[in-house]
UniProtKB/TrEMBL annotation:
Name listed for the protein in its UniProt record: Glycerophosphoryl diester phosphodiesterase
Domain GP-PDE: from-to ranges: 3-240
Alphabetical list of Gene3D superfamilies matching this protein: Phosphatidylinositol (PI) phosphodiesterase
Classification via InterPro entries: GP_PDE_dom, PLC-like_Pdiesterase_TIM-brl
Length: 250
C-alpha cells in the first residue's frame, strides 16, 4: 500500500479540525505528506481556515464567517468543543498555516464557497501562495466550478481540482473544460474504470474521507495512485503496516 496519506483538516479525529493543533499533530507523523484544509474570507478580506460557513459548531462564536472581521475571528475559542485540552485553540489565518507548512508538507486548499459568496477568495488565496513561492506545493480544490475557473484565469500555474461526491458520465469532459488536473471524489465512487479514465487524462485522484482500514485497503487494491484523505492518519499507518507485512514476511 503506497497510497499517499492526506490528513483531512489536519489530524482531525484527535485535535479540533482546521486548527494549528490538528495541523501540527498531523505533521508529526511521517506518513502524512499532504494535508487538506478549508479557506473562507473574513468580512475584511483575510483568508481564514475554517470549514463551516457559520461559527457555532467549531467555535464559541455566532453568525457567519463572512460577516465577522479577522480581529474578532482570531479571538474565538476553536478548540473547547473537541476537549478541554484544546481550550483556547484559535481559528488560523491561511498565512499562518502556509508559513508553518512551507517546505514540510503539501496542501490541498479547498475554497469554501457557494456561487458568488466570496468573489475575492481566489485572488486572496493566490496572493498568499505566490508570496511564499508555494505554487508547486499546493492544489486548489472546490465544489464550485466558477471558483476553479477563476483560479486558472488568475494563476494558470496552479493545479486545480473539482470536488464531487458522484460519478457523472461527463465528469472527464467537465474536468478538461475547467483545465483541472486533480479530482477530489467521495471514496465510494472510486473504481478501476474511473482510475483508468483519469490516468489516461493525466488527472490525479484523491478519495475522501476514509477512516477504516478495510476501505483503505480496498482503495489501495484498486490503484496505488489513489490519494487517501482521512481523519485518521493512525489508521492509515495500521493499514500500511498490515498490507506491507503480507509482502515482506520472512
Amino acid at each position: 500500500m503506497n497510497n499517499l496519506c492526506v490528513a483531512h483538516r489536519g489530524f482531525s479525529s484527535l485535535a479540533p479540525e482546521n486548527t494549528m493543533a490538528a495541523f501540527n499533530m498531523a505533521m508529526e507523523r511521517p506518513e502524512v505528506q499532504w494535508m487538506e484544509l478549508d479557506v473562507q474570507l473574513s468580512r475584511d478580506g483575510v483568508p481564514v481556515v475554517i470549514h463551516d460557513f457559520t461559527l457555532e459548531r467549531t467555535t464559541n462564536g455566532k453568525g457567519r464567517v463572512k460577516d465577522t472581521d479577522w480581529a474578532a475571528l482570531k479571538l474565538l475559542d476553536a478548540g473547547s468543543w473537541k476537549g478541554n485540552n484544546y481550550t483556547g485553540e484559535r481559528i488560523p489565518s491561511l498565512r499562518e498555516v502556509l508559513d508553518r507548512c512551507c517546505g514540510k508538507v503539501r496542501l490541498n486548499i479547498e475554497l469554501k464557497t457557494q456561487g458568488d459568496m466570496y468573489p475575492g477568495l481566489p485572488a486572496a488565496v493566490i496572493y498568499e501562495i505566490r508570496k511564499r513561492h508555494m505554487q508547486h506545493d499546493v492544489v486548489i480544490t472546490s465544489f464550485e466550478p466558477a471558483a476553479l475557473v477563476e483560479v486558472k484565469k488568475l494563476a494558470p500555474e496552479l493545479q486545480t481540482g473539482l470536488i464531487i461526491d458522484a460519478k457523472p458520465g461527463d465528469l472527464l469532459a467537465a474536468l478538461q473544460q475547467m483545465h483541472c488536473t486533480f479530482l477530489s471524489i467521495g471514496y465510494t465512487n472510486v473504481d478501476k474504470a474511473l482510475m483508468r479514465q483519469m490516468h489516461g487524462a493525466g488527472i490525479q485522484v484523491m478519495a475522501w474521507t476514509v477512516d477504516d482500514k478495510a476501505s483503505m485497503k480496498k482503495l489501495a487494491a484498486i490503484d496505488s495512485d489513489v490519494m487517501i484523505c482521512t481523519n485518521r492518519p493512525d489508521v492509515w499507518e495500521e493499514a500500511f503496516e498490515e498490507t506491507s507485512s503480507r509482502f515482506f514476511r520472512p
